[in-house]
Amino acid sequence: MKVLVPKKSLADTLARVERIVPNRSSNPGLSLLRIDVTDGAMELSGSNMDVDIRAKLPADASGNGTYAVTAHVFGQVVRALPGDEVALDFGENEMQISSGSYTTKLQLMSPGSAPVLSFPSDHAGSIDGALLARALGAVRYAAAVADFQAVFRGVKIELRDSHTRAVATDGFRLAYYHLETSTGLDADVIVPARSVEELLRVVDDGEVKLQLDDGQLSVEHDGYALNLKLMDGTFPDYERVIPTAFPVSITLPAHRLSEAVARVALMADKSANNRVDLFVKDGQLQITAEGGFGRSLEAIDVMQEGTDSEIRLAYNSKYLVDALAPTAGDVRLRFSGSNSSPSVVNDLGDPGYLAMVVPLRTT
Amino acid sequence: MKVLVPKKSLADTLARVERIVPNRSSNPGLSLLRIDVTDGAMELSGSNMDVDIRAKLPADASGNGTYAVTAHVFGQVVRALPGDEVALDFGENEMQISSGSYTTKLQLMSPGSAPVLSFPSDHAGSIDGALLARALGAVRYAAAVADFQAVFRGVKIELRDSHTRAVATDGFRLAYYHLETSTGLDADVIVPARSVEELLRVVDDGEVKLQLDDGQLSVEHDGYALNLKLMDGTFPDYERVIPTAFPVSITLPAHRLSEAVARVALMADKSANNRVDLFVKDGQLQITAEGGFGRSLEAIDVMQEGTDSEIRLAYNSKYLVDALAPTAGDVRLRFSGSNSSPSVVNDLGDPGYLAMVVPLRTT
Q1: A118 lies in some domain
Q2: Could you say which of B81, B113, B145 is where a domain stops?
Q3: Are A206 and A290 in a shared domain?
Q4: Which of B95, B99, B263 to mutate to test binding with chain A, by most A CBs within 10 Å of its CB?
Q5: Which of A135, A279, B87, B105 could form a disulfide with B98 if both were Cys (CB 3.0 to 4.6 A apart)?
Q6: B71-117 pLDDT per residue, tens
Q7: ipTM of this complex
Q8: What CATH number should be reported for the domain holding residue A6?
Q9: Whether B299 and A101 lie within 8 Å, measured CB to CB
Q10: Testing the interface with A: which of B74, B252, B267, B317 to mutate, by most A Cβ within 10 A?
């Protein structure tokens, strides 16, 4: 069985699939890439147990065949090939890869050793890829890296009749992105944040098809199919903790605030939550920090609403910078008035985004 | 004491000095940067015991003062400053750093805690910076990363009446770069390869002044002064091991050989010296490798001298790729005919460079 395929498309596809297929695994079958050759196309598939991926690419092939190779070795060889075209010749035990003056014979493994994957052919839901990518990309940072409750390491996706919304929180901060559009599905799911990252690498402009089935969310887009294993557990009732009254709010350019916080925080004590203090009064925001090496101050003129009050709150500077990263243009920072109640960031140019940061307790 | 200095020049200078001053050290004085302010200039100096560095930059200053700060914190703050100009105001215990809307007060340390450094004012030797950088940059890779004999981790610099030459070897390969020019000094020195890297970051076009003194080589160039501590020990008599007779040699483009070796070596066994085999016969070079994942072959037409013989030798592919990295255009690969005697790489466009690689012993 011979297959001809352009080097660039094969290398690009392998690079995406390889991100998911583990290089080493206690289960050696997991490091295999399954190759299905059909008339005029090649399908590459693999899994890391949390995410299954299948990529389809056009190829000059006739006949049918199913093979398996070690994914990372195949990827390395293809990236290094000298020519623009790759010829794959599948034999009994070896796949010969030829390009220009170079030939490799790569050992074939039994396709039966590779994980058994199944991707749905029908999809009940769909959404615009750019919107989905924006929503997931804007909230992913707020998920916990490690936490006693697994759901904090996931991103909740509300697939409702009335809206679609992505939410992440680690208990100290929260981000959601709200879309006034329905996918056609009706369920709330929690997807591991790391799986969301892999999904973000595959999704861009164009329609994304969705299907919910048997503990997994399946996604199809632009030649790629993914199954994302869902997390069990109950996501916290986050809407309850978002304050509704804000005696003071300020408006200023997002990059101005983000850069100032990061700069001032250089003096903050890393072992004390990277604390920066915000002081708002009479249309001015003062950001200060103090630590073992010294102290710093930056003052910024802002548009202030609720000028009767002043605000003096401390934050983990990293949480503020993270919350501002998905924004552009002007942001509004709204203070709920108590130092135990969260502050809220809105992007004035993008009403779908909301971030919440809990101030540090100071005594 | 107030000093005004452009942010970019201060940030660039600090970045170079910071590479040498350790971020953390069991001797806390070593992480300090000494600042000497004089009329119209600022001098920054520090040391990691192997390399002392002093950088001079023009500054709007009047008066004299000597201060010390933690180098890395100062560098971080300066890089983050919002304005184009930096105002430094040295007080009793604090240095105030202001730029745009931002102000930091950084704690000053006692200059007496910083290492005592002295840089020569007179220099007996000199060399063109571009030549020195080329010579050192071309051989540095051949020094050992870790070895029982310390001299293998150094670069020998022959500063002779008749020539200047940089040499490095780890016992399995060797590189030298020969300049038909004298620095005016007359001595052979061994500089730690890591110090050579720091020197390479500072040296570029223009005159480099040299001075040998008390176990160190001092270098001055473009506002920077460095003292490089020399290594004790006897460098191996390397000229003795370079073969003089080569029954077969081949000529081909360097990048062609380097890419082919790297590509074929993807199939090589990493635990067996990344072995690739070279087979030369009738004007063709065949490169092959074999390992657990499969085998690979690349054939290249070459210009062959000594066509009566054929060559069949094995190499560590990494050593071949390293030896070719400093070359461009065509290279000549010369084989001494025995599989225990080294092969030699010459750059046809740059006669100063020579690399030697010992073949793998095969049975």
Answers
A1: no
A2: B113
A3: no
A4: B263
A5: B87
A6: 999 999 999 999 999 999 999 999 999 999 999 999 999 999 999 99
A7: 0.86
A8: 3.10.150.10
A9: yes
A10: B267
- In a domain, residue A70? The reply is yes
Q: How far is A42 from chain B (nearest CA, A)?
A: 22
Task: Look at residue B246 and tell me if it is in a domain.
Answer: yes
Structure tokens at A186: 């009706």
Residue A296 φ/ψ, nearest 5 degrees:
-145, 160
Chain B residues within an 8 Å CB radius of A267: 77, 104, 106
**Judgement on whether residues B352 and B270 belong to the same structural domain of the protein:** yes
Q: Do A266 and B105 touch (CB under 8 A)?
A: no
Q: Identify the domain containing residue A307 by its residue range.
A: 242-357
Provide block-wise average pLDDT over 10 residues at a time, chain A (363 residues): 96 95 88 95 96 97 93 96 95 95 95 95 97 98 88 97 97 96 97 97 96 96 97 95 94 98 95 95 97 95 93 96 97 88 96 97 81
Confirm if B232 and B321 have CB atoms less than 8 A apart. Answer: no
